[in-house]
Amino acid sequence: MTRALHTTNVVDTFIRVAEDCPARSGEEPQPRGGNPTVATLQYAMLAGSPYKYTSDDVVFATSAPGRELGAKATKHERSLARETFFSKGQACMRASPLGKRFGWGVHADAKGRIAIYAVDSKRYQALSADPELTQVRAMRSRRA
């Protein structure tokens, strides 16, 4: 019996920064205590390769199970780990610290591939005003 898989992927969607995001421009997340954080890992994936990855790709790669695999894991091992990971619902990019804390909006294109844009950029402004895109906000850090 196969498990039902959940997804975090969206298409033609723009995730604007959270209403309580303290950043007024896109800030590059820094490692904490010399160790990478989820924010630094997501930023590295997306800043270097816009529209290469889907939300599922980023969420899995920056999760604890994804990071535990290492570079020597086989394609089959990765596939099994990913299937197990997505057998339960996972937090989507709306919960990413990039939009909650660091001032980055996330755009998903028609194929579900994503890119990030700084809140103070012209591209962010254009995407946030685009009526063709589903507009959502990153999750707030604190309750209203």
Structural topology:
Elements: E1 13-16, H1 38-48, H2 55-61, H3 64-69, H4 75-85, H5 97-100, E2 104-108, E3 114-118, H6 122-128, E4 134-137
Parallel strand pairs: 1-4
Antiparallel strand pairs: 1-2, 2-3
Describe the protein in words.
- With 144 residues, the chain is an alpha+beta fold.
- The chain has one domain.
- It is built from six helices and four strands.
- It has helices at residues 38-48, 55-61, 64-69, 75-85, 97-100, 122-128, and strands at residues 13-16, 104-108, 114-118, 134-137.
- A four-stranded mixed β-sheet has the order 3-2-1-4.
- It starts with 12 loop residues before the first strand and ends in a 7-residue tail after the last strand.
Short note summarizing the structure:
The protein is built from six helices and four strands; from the N terminus they run E-H-H-H-H-H-E-E-H-E.
Q: Any key phrases for this structure?
A:
single chain; 144 residues; alpha+beta; 6 helices; 12% strand
